[in-house]
Design brief:
CATH topology of the largest domain in chain A: FAD/NAD(P)-binding domain
CATH topology of the largest domain in chain B: FAD/NAD(P)-binding domain
Oligomer: heterotrimer
Chains: A alpha+beta, B alpha/beta, C mainly beta
CATH architecture of the largest domain in chain A: 3-Layer(bba) Sandwich
Shape of chain A: elongated
Largest sheet of chain B: 8 strands, mixed
Radius of gyration of chain A: 38 Å
Number of domains of chain A: 8
Number of strands of chain B: 18
CATH superfamily of the largest domain in chain A: FAD/NAD(P)-binding domain
Distance between the termini of chain A: 100 Å
CATH class of the largest domain in chain A: Alpha Beta
Helix content of chain B: 25-40%
Radius of gyration of chain B: 21 Å
Number of helices of chain B: 10
Largest interface: A-B, 118 and 111 residues
Order of helices and strands of chain B: HEHEEHEHEHEEHEEEEHEEEEHEEEHH
């Protein structure tokens, strides 16, 4: 029985004697420290790890390095873990995926038994079309069979804490094989700050299992000495214009390097023959890794390949003490030192043959090999070889995703029988096997060249380093690789039944691809989308070339013309939690926020801010403003200081009214519009002195207005003016109500009479000993003072004012109060098309001013034409409060919408604002509101509901 | 069922261009192909579809396959409703299952302002006869039991706009079904044929130049979405469009637990789970203009972070693949459809992120326009002319201070 | 986070640090016809190629600056304060300023 452990050997990762206990589908299992989940399972005799996506076929060890989707398991509730790449930990709970009720007794296996003829590609597109009403039922069945792993149905919050790390460096080397190590070492020796990332638990790449582990470890040690930061178990996920995210466990490194070395190596490719997905059919490096790194005896091995790699694999396995049955080399004429070595080792080499069928029930028991014709069909008879493992060494394909993402092109190389990335952009240096330098020595040299090129380009190194690079480059070019590789057929077979897969993730056979091509899906992209080939969890790593070969064969086009599909990130599938980083909430809170919490405020989102909506008594708070005094935190208002000799000129160009004529200490309302005359924001402008204006904006518009102002300032360099955004540094609160003057009087020695501080005055006073800008304005419709002070002092001011008798009120009472006055909220009572004329802000547009200003031309146009919609007030005699957003209708025709609505306790009525067609904007006009199907009668009112003449404001 | 076993050739791509066609459609995406499909109803068959890559390679094959009609403006709602209705029957028309799953569509509201906008949309939709309702958090939880609808989240769910007829469809199937119909109707589909220039004489386009040769055209249709401006420039005209990338991604398949489409505009995500079990997620467009269809890292980071606010259990689900497509954004987020100042040059552009949802109705309307020379009433509000007269059909809630 | 821009004030930063201000347009001088106004307000070259455009260092110094970028590749050719910017190829000296 295979699966025990081999004798010790210097390269093994396992630590014998250090046992780790874990469970697989609930059964307890034992592995060794250093094992992967898969190596431990395999050593314990487990051959099937999961079931496949469509046909529920058995899936087991394949690539041995976490690149394939054959060993997807769920670990401690996390699905999609690659068992063959995931280090074993003590106590892990491992479960299979996609089989029910158990891995062995999978009822969905039926889809395979009947599946072949019943599920040709595109099956669903051709079925269940009529009657349409039955489709949801079919779909339900379909969905119940979908998916691989299982997630918890509900989870209240994230449990996995992940972090981002930003790392700037000179050179990032992606891939820690011999080429990557060599590149990193050279660049670091030249003085560059180098980061190297690799997917494996240690750098070294294929050296680690091909007998070069000592060399690999030595190189890595020298890199570390030279200062290279080595990240392991850390795949580079993609190339985002020079930014490479590297995923390492709980950390996502965002590496921004000046230069990149792509040393991403190659991927062994499968061969296509019937039953080529049986557990036991592995990629050659997969079998080697099992034996070399984990000391697992894979069992009796047969090797099949197209080049020397098959021979090398056989010799390596043999050296490790694995029984090698035979090597099936597709080349008819293999003859080299390696063939001699095989002979010496007593390993049989069959030339000119390839597998035409695998056999076995639950796992591989035999393979049939024989010579095939160019179409892949067996010529003559096949030979049966009993074996536990078939190690397949198809043509190596460059792992070129990163290079292709960076802009390189893939060109088919006839010698290598795969697509090589070409024309990499100048900031990225390919090295090693991905660049066609596959053997260890030329990979080492090409790494050194790439590392030197990167470092020298950044200004490191001396003249002799350049000379050295030139000679190394020449040497590399002179020693162009002499690979002898046979082109495998798209599919080799004996003419019998059985599925020959080109894509093990998606259960796509060569026949499926050919069938789809015959239907018209004969380009790689169409084939991919129609058959889903290459779209599974291994992202086409092991299926793109195989499916391209099938397309090439059926269409008669060369592979170079078939091409490759677009390389897309991420290179390695990555848990969403790792990309998401730490959850954060970019909320702003005012400097008085603690008081609101103390007072038990209901806190809600208002744009980016967390604000007090009320303090539990909306009506009481509202009435307090009417009858005594209220206090609301309005620190969220945008606040800008515009200063300079041309400050007035700037504001005159941005506002449709005149600001330059304001007298110091006076305030004016202003509305901002776009060039098309649409309202974008509003607020007040207070002139502090000749050169200085204090501009407030809406809370939600603060950032945009700041940006609008500064953009125009950049466009008008002739203006001598500066802008300072003090939104965060200055707090503000509105003291309002008939009693507010008395409160103010208690807190200042200044004359606060109606003459001392008149309506629209903006004096600078000490209130409760705190320097304030006092704006006498009346957003809520009662006598009021907006007090602006330095944010750190605001809590003191708030306390002083509140202690003097002002009752805190929240956003909701403020909305009622301002609605009574028909004071608009930009963005709520205006929409993207509202002009000042539509919002009754004609008074704020001064077309008689000589100056050009933003929006002037459009406003001149709209002054003469009725707006599409006009803002009006309305009352509902029936007392209903329509939903904000409800439609104004005539019959079923929409003629407007309710923009604001509330019950006003002071007025004891239901009031609102609505945008309506102008013909309805007449006092007393009756309008009909459609609110969730209900019809509500309302009457239009154009004058404010409360204090229409503003007497209270001015008194 | 007979078709399952019968290998039926879908199309045969044309290789040689004729010297002249009555109708030249630039763009082999869902709009171009749909137009060719509906031109059959008018007996117009002398049609060439010029596609610079493979059919459906642009927005048609890159969108997140969501269909809905709960738009803000009556004009928009009416138009997209007509589209959804056509989509409902399109599979049968094309004899191709488009896997249209009307699983329902939820737009979440996390603020008062959002509730206000949703209420307005629900009302406008209802008046247009569209099933669209404002629902509370409890009903949201019922429809999406796997989503975390708790009061203690960063962005509490105050309610949602629920649109039962909305859902997802197989985008590629739409392309293929339409392509087959166009082909069977006699239209020539020319993939890998790039338009390189347009020759204009006065108010007419006379010649379409391609990398495979020049052709004369009776009518030319610009159905190129993200590249609309580039084609328009060849015709010496400007469009009110900017081109941006929109990105999406998909996870490895997991056992299904989400049966509705979930959208959060505040968090800029939309999420659905496909019939294969993959979570398909998209975000809003990048603010800067570009023609480079490449993903950005911040998209992946923001999108995953926001998705996990709603579905924390997806933290261990693995992101499999991300991609980007181009969007042609108009100033009012409504399309630009129909006639231009050039007599025989019509456009289907300005779709922003909504183009795929409109494919069949665009095809039907453009075909009618080509056949009759008259702009159908349904699309009259979307004329290019509206930007010269400043009569927008704004799908935007509020004006923003921006350029 | 994909391409980087050189803020003339702060140096090289990820694009996510910046706000995009759109392609540079020329504000009509004098009172335009309504159609001309709307062409300026709504219509854009939207060039697939080198575009002159506005950026603001949103997450940094807050300064607005000009850039030329190839929209096909996102390669940023230069960035500069408006006063230091090379003259635009087309005759458009004014950066949209009302006079």
């Amino acid at each position: 029985m295979s699966g025990g452990r081999l004798a010790e050997n210097g390269g093994q990762r396992i630590r014998r004697g250090e046992e780790l206990r874990f469970t697989f589908d609930g059964d307890s299992r034992v592995g060794l420290a250093g094992d992967t989940i898969a190596s431990a399972l395999y050593a314990g005799g487990q051959r099937t790890f999961s079931r496949s996506f469509k046909y529920h076929r058995r899936r087991g060890e394949l690539c041995g390095c976490g690149q394939c989707a054959n060993s997807l398991v769920t670990v401690d509730g996390a699905p999609g873990v690659r068992a063959c790449g995931e280090p074993l930990r003590d106590g892990m709970q491992v479960e299979h995926q996609n089989a029910w009720p158990s891995l062995e007794l999978d009822v969905m296996r039926a889809t395979d038994l009947v599946g072949g003829p019943f599920t040709p590609p595109g099956f669903y597109y051709k079925t269940f079309i009529r009657p349409r009403r039955l489709w949801p039922l079919y779909e339900k069945v379909l969905r119940s069979a979908a998916g691989l792993g299982k997630l918890r149905r509900r989870q209240p919050e994230r449990e996995w804490r992940t972090e981002y790390r930003r790392r700037h460096c000179d050179v990032l080397v992606v891939g820690g094989g011999i080429a990557g190590l060599s590149a990193a070492l050279r660049a670091a020796q030249l003085g560059a700050d180098v980061v190297l990332c690799d997917e494996d638990v240690e750098p070294g790449g294929s050296l680690l299992f091909e007998g070069g582990h000592e060399r690999a470890r030595d190189l890595a040690a020298r890199c570390r000495e030279a200062g290279v930061e080595i990240l392991t178990r850390a795949p580079g996920l993609g190339y985002f214009d020079g930014l490479v995210p590297v995923w390492q466990g709980d950390v996502l490194h965002q590496v921004r390097a000046a230069r990149h070395v792509a040393a991403t190596g190659t991927l062994a490719q499968p061969l296509v023959f019937p039953e080529n997905d049986l557990p036991g059919v592995m990629l050659a490096p997969g079998a080697l890794r099992l034996a070399a790194l984990y000391g697992v005896d894979p069992g009796r091995c047969a090797i099949a390949g197209v080049d020397d790699r098959a021979l090398e694999t056989a010799l390596s396995l043999h050296r490790l003490g694995v029984q090698v049955a035979v090597v099936a080399d597709l080349r008819p004429d293999a003859d080299s030192e390696l063939t001699a070595a095989l002979e010496t080792a007593g390993i049989e080499l069959m030339r000119g043959v390839t597998p035409v069928r695998a056999g076995g029930s639950k796992q591989l028991a035999e393979v049939q090999v024989g010579p095939v014709d160019p179409s892949g069909r067996l010529r003559g008879s096949a030979r049966r070889i009993a074996c536990d493992v078939l190690a397949v060494a198809g043509p190596q394909a460059p792992a070129s995703s990163l290079l292709l993402q960076s802009g390189a092109r893939a060109r088919f190389d006839d010698t290598l029988q795969s697509f090589l990335p070409q024309e990499a952009p100048p900031l990225i240096h390919p090295a090693g096997a991905v660049a066609g330098h596959a053997d260890a020595e030329s990979a080492m040299l090409s790494g050194a060249v790439a590392g030197a090129e990167a470092a020298l380009a950044l200004g490191f190194g001396e003249r002799e380093d350049r000379d050295r690079l030139a000679s190394e480059r020449a040497k590399l070019e002179a020693e162009a690789p002499t690979v002898r590789r046979a082109a495998p057929p798209a599919k080799s077979h004996d003419g019998g039944r059985g599925k020959a897969f080109v894509d093990l993730d998606e259960d796509i056979t060569a026949k499926d691809v050919a069938y789809a091509a015959a239907e018209g899906y004969d380009s790689l992209e169409l084939s991919k989308r129609y058959t889903t080939v290459t779209m599974g969890p291994s992202q086409g790593r092991f299926s793109q070339l195989a499916s391209a070969r099938v397309l090439g064969e059926v269409t008669g086009r060369p592979l170079g013309e078939i091409g490759v599909t677009t390389a897309r990130p991420p290179w390695t599938t990555v848990p969403m939690g790792a990309l998401a980083g730490r959850p954060f909430e970019a909320a702003k809170r005012s400097s008085i926020h603690a008081r609101h919490r103390d007072l038990g405020a209901t806190v809600r989102w208002a744009g980016d801010w967390r604000r007090a909506y009320d303090y539990g008594d909306v009506e009481g708070e509202t009435m307090a403003v009417h009858e005594g005094a209220g206090l609301i935190d309005v620190s969220t208002l945008g606040k800008l200081i515009v200063r300079g000799p041309d400050a007035g000129e700037l504001l005159d160009r941005l506002y449709p009214n005149r600001m330059s004529t304001l007298k110091p200490g006076r305030i004016r309302y202003g509305v901002l519009t776009s060039e098309s005359g649409r309202i974008s924001d509003d607020g007040t402008v207070c002139r502090l002195d000749d050169d200085t204006f204090y501009v407030t904006t809406t809370s939600s518009g603060a950032t945009a207005v700041e940006r609008w102002f500064t953009w125009w300032m950049a466009s008008w360099p002739e203006l001598d003016v500066t802008l300072t955004d003090v939104t965060q540094g200055v707090a503000a609160m509105n003291l309002a109500g008939p009693g507010s003057r008395d409160i103010l009087a208690k807190l200042t020695d200044a004359d606060v009479s109606n003459e001392g501080i008149a309506y629209l005055d903006g004096p600078q006073l000490a209130i409760a000993g705190i320097d304030c800008l006092v704006l006498r304005i009346g957003f809520v419709g009662e006598l009021g003072y907006e007090l602006h002070c330095a944010a750190p002092q605001a809590r003191g001011l708030w306390d002083a004012v509140a202690d003097s008798g002002a009752r805190p009120f929240g956003l909701e009472p403020q909305r009622i109060l301002r609605l009574q006055k028909m004071h608009i909220l930009v963005g709520q009572d205006t929409d993207s098309e509202t002009t000042p004329y539509g919002a009754n802000l004609d008074f704020a547009v001064k077309l008689d001013k000589e100056q050009d200003f933003i929006g002037r031309w459009a406003l001149e146009h709209y002054e003469e034409r009725p707006p599409a919609q006009k803002l009006v007030g309305f009352t509902c005699p029936g007392g209903e409060v329509p939903t904000e957003g409800a439609a104004i209708v005539e019959g079923d025709r929409v003629v407007g919408q309710v923009t604001s609505s509330r019950r006003a306790p002071k007025l004891e009525s239901s009031i609102g604002l609505a945008l309506v067609e102008p013909r309805l904007a007449e006092d007393g006009a009756s309008i009909s509101i459609s609110d969730d199907g209900r019809r509500i009668a309302a009457a239009v009112q154009t004058r404010p509901f409360y204090d229409p003449d503003g007497e209270l404001l001015r008194s | 069922m007979r078709d399952i076993f019968r290998k039926r050739r879908m199309w045969k791509f044309a290789t040689e261009l004729k010297p002249r066609y009555d109708v030249v459609i630039i763009g082999g995406g869902s709009h171009g192909l749909a137009t060719a499909h509906y031109l059959r109803e008018h007996g117009i068959a002398d049609v060439a579809i010029l596609e610079k890559s493979y059919i459906g390679s642009g927005a048609a094959g890159r969108n997140t396959t969501i269909l809905r009609s709960n738009y803000k403006t009556p004009e928009g709602a009416r138009f997209y409703d007509a589209s959804v209705k056509l989509y409902e029957g399109l599979g049968a028309d094309l004899d191709f299952n488009l896997l249209f799953s009307q699983c329902g569509h939820l737009t979440l509201a996390h603020s008062d302002r959002a509730m206000f906008v949703m209420a307005n949309r629900a009302e406008v939709n209802r008046l247009e006869g569209i099933d669209s309702q404002l629902i509370g958090p409890d009903r949201v939880q019922e429809l999406a039991p796997a989503m975390y609808v708790g009061p203690d989240t960063t962005y509490p769910i105050m309610g949602a706009l629920y649109h039962p007829p909305g859902g997802i469809i197989r985008h590629d199937a739409v392309v293929w079904g339409l392509a087959r119909s166009a082909f069977e109707g006699g239209a020539e589909i020319h993939p890998y044929t790039e338009v390189t220039g347009l020759r204009r004489q006065g108010d007419r386009i006379t010649t379409v130049e391609t990398d495979k040769g020049s052709i004369e055209a009776g009518v030319v249709l610009n159905c190129t979405a993200g590249w609309s401006s580039v084609i328009a420039e060849m015709a010496e005209m400007q469009l009110p469009i900017t081109t941006h990338i929109l990105q999406a991604c998909v996870t490895e398949p997991v056992k299904p637990f989400l049966d509705v489409v979930v959208v959060s505009s505040q968090m800029h995500v939309y999420i659905s789970q496909s019939d294969r079990g993959e979570f398909v997620m998209g975000s809003e467009i990048e603010p800067w203009t570009t023609y480079r269809m490449q993903n950005t890292l911040n998209f992946l980071q923001d999108l995953t972070r926001h998705t996990l606010e709603l579905f924390p259990q997806l933290e261990r689900a693995r992101l499999l693949r991300a991609w980007a497509g181009l969007c042609d954004l108009s100033p009012d987020y409504s399309p630009i459809l129909g006639k231009t100042e050039i007599e025989n040059f019509h456009v289907s552009a300005g779709w922003g992120t909504y183009g795929f949802k409109a494919a069949p109705i665009v095809g039907k309307m453009l075909a009618e326009l080509v056949a009759t020379g008259k702009t159908p009433e349904l699309i009259a509000p979307f004329a290019l002319e509206r930007f010269y007269t400043d009569e927008l059909v704004s799908e935007l809630a509020a004006a923003a201070v921006s350029h | 986070m994909s391409f980087v821009l050189d803020c003339p004030n702060c140096g090289s930063r990820e694009v996510t640090d910046f706000g995009f201000g759109g392609e540079v347009t020329t504000r009509p001088t004098g009172r335009p016809e309504f159609k001309e106004l709307n062409r300026y307000v709504y219509f854009r070259d939207n060039k697939a190629g080198v575009q002159r455009e506005w950026w603001v260092h949103r997450a940094g110094c807050g300064e607005w600056f000009l850039a030329e970028r190839d929209t096909r590749t996102n390669e940023v050719i230069w960035t500069a304060r408006p006063a230091d910017a090379p003259p635009a190829r087309a005759a458009a000296a004014s950066e949209g300023a009302p006079r």
